[in-house]
TrEMBL record:
BP GO terms, sorted: chlorophyll biosynthetic process; photosynthesis
Family: Belongs to the geranylgeranyl reductase family. ChlP subfamily.
Keywords for the protein's UniProt record, in alphabetical order: Chlorophyll biosynthesis, NADP, Oxidoreductase, Photosynthesis
InterPro entries the UniProt entry points to: BchP_ChlP_pln/prok (IPR010253), FAD-bd (IPR002938), FAD/NAD-bd_sf (IPR036188), Geranylgeranyl_Rdtase_fam (IPR011777), Geranylgeranyl_Rdtase_pln/cyn (IPR011774), Geranylgeranyl_reductase (IPR050407), GGR_cat (IPR054715)
Domain (FAD-binding) ranges: 50-210
Entry EC no(s): 1.3.1.83
Top enzyme class: oxidoreductase
GO molecular function terms attached to this record: FAD binding; geranylgeranyl diphosphate reductase activity; geranylgeranyl reductase activity
Name of the molecule in the record: Geranylgeranyl diphosphate reductase, chloroplastic
Phylogenetic placement of the source organism: Eukaryota, Viridiplantae, Streptophyta, Embryophyta, Tracheophyta
Amino acid sequence: MASLVLSSHSNCNYHLRSLLSVTRSINPTKIYAKRVTVAASSAIVGRKLRAAVIGGGPAGSSAAAALASGGVETFLIERDINNAKPCGGAIPLCMLDEFDIPMEIVDRRVSQMKVVSPSNLVVDFGKTLKPHEFIAMCRREVLDAFLRSRAERSGASVISALVTHFDVPENSDQPYTVHYAAAGRRAHLDVDVLIGADGVNSKVAKAIGAGDYSCAIAFQERIRLPEEKMKYYENMAEMYVGRDVSPDFYAWVFPKCDHVAVGTGTVCSKRDIKSFQRAIRHRARDKIEGGKVVKVEAHPIPEHPRPVRVRHRAALVGDAAGYVTKCSGEGIYFAAKSGKMCGEGIARASEGGTKMVEERDLRREYLKEWDSKYKSTFVFLDLLQRVFYGSDAAREALVELCGDEYVQKMTFDSYLYKKLAAGNPWEDAKLVANTVGSLMRCSVMGRDVLKV
């Protein structure tokens, strides 16, 4: 539940300009058009293994950094280096350490959260957080620029270009050919390995026949609040549940540098997304009144992994692979982690870029490792969504349970550190009983949703 949750920095705009200036310094006209011959033998003579990563978000940048650091000749291709993806922007504490994220790019340190039920029952969620614990809130344009710059410093060649199509090899003697347009010119790049980190509408996934998946849509408005209103959200995030704001997901108010992100999402009723957005603005109206909308954003979110995530010498990571959790909608950490695991796996299998890799290498070093580590997490959160997001009575029960300090401790311990929290058998038994009791009580008694 904490993954639904999402100290201000007065010089946040300075950090944004600095990071973006580093990214803009990349020469977008640098075209890699030289055709090469991919060796069919296990050993590569006279060059390094060559990889192209399509997409420069957390997944692609982390994959490129791991590949380049591991000795693979790496090309990171991003369509729009100034893109600001619609996103809640919450990242767990462990990601700051694991990916060496500097505090300068963290807009807010959320240590308080309110969960609001359909009947406007409010629960404070975060009472068990220790003084040093918080959820980091970032703007994606800042985080993504930082990770891309790191990939370039690691040795990856960053190309600002639109990928148009791919030539997929018919046998092991042929390369993947990436066709793209940059600075008004068309070019191509031949590589041994292809990584798709290009989001829900992945061209890599289509090229390798990875299959389709169901998608939610997220709609978000960035609203700049008056200073006195913004003080309330200094380290506070809010989550709202109810059929009025989403029939199968939740709505949020998350603090950023100088504004709040107010949004919602749905799978089953995409055409009604604007009415759900009006509803969350209505539910939060007293706290966001007087704010100015500075940006409106919408973006698809995968609902489950693709049928195929590895084929031949191509792999999918992040949203392209479908690594967004149900119930919480968390995707940033899993995107970066999948990219890192995939890049490191390829570097290992190629022995520092000196040997060719095959599909079995990608499956062994990346896919098997990923599934063993995270598959159960995705299955469990899928189950939670089915149980608690099916009706307003179930949502009321969910909010009731969020008031339990044991629930909060277990949730935050698991979310912040991405490790299974060690539970207490007696408390676990009580939690099961309380869950059943809350579901039965809310189903039988119900709660009249306030007509406000």
